[in-house]
């Protein structure tokens, strides 16, 4: 499993695509958070990274599918998946190896953003920030990246075309992220089932964790989505 994980991470960073994806993530966040007047956190008047944690999930909708789109699609296309199946690995070990590589890359992408925390802390009038809230928000963002990774891996297991995998992953992640929240706002559901429908969406649980409170229900939700997506992936490669 770890050999697959290391191989995929090495392949990701062996060409410019991986570095460009990470640089674009940091560049987009940096421009929106510090350079654009309407969204600059320097103009908020208080030390907060709320704008970053509101923006990052939307960038993740493109970044995570870009990282994972080749996971199985390229294996199918190049014919190396047949070679992979000859190794003494179970289907689940292959899936976990691919999944762990994407999650570790997402984690590496988040590390440079800690400079935002240092910047806001240094610019704060009191020299202090809401550390608990920021830690909770980072945990929520990592869990969101882990969920998007599992969904993207599953989408990649359906096709041998990396571009199709990217588009499908982005659409499914977007649908699960804001789809339920959008449906819950329909007049038909207002005052009735709107709250329960909203609870089915990823956005609801991400915002809950980002408040700095780790609720068991949120953790169970994220782990359930990950398990379901990886189970679908294992079924797909088993059919191959």
Q: Count structural domains.
A: 1
Structural class: mainly alpha
Low-confidence stretches: none
Cα(first) to Cα(last) distance is: 19 Å
Task: Tell me the layout of helices and strands.
Elements (H helix, E strand, L loop, with lengths): L1 H11 L3 H20 L14 H19 L4 H6 L1 H6 L5 H20 L3 H10 L7 H26 L5 H23 L9 H6 L2 H9 L5 H24 L1
Outline of the structure:
The protein is an all-alpha fold. It has helices spanning 2-12, 16-35, 50-68, 73-78, 80-85, 91-110, 114-123, 131-156, 162-184, 194-199, 202-210, 216-239.
Overall description:
The protein is mainly α. 75% of the residues lie in helices and 0% in strands. It is built from twelve helices and no strands. α1 crosses α6, α6 crosses α8 and α8 (131-156) packs antiparallel against α11. The longest helix is centred in the middle third of the chain and has 26 residues, at 131-156. The model has no long low-confidence stretch (mean pLDDT 82).
Provide key terms for this protein.
mainly alpha; 12 helices; 240 residues; single chain
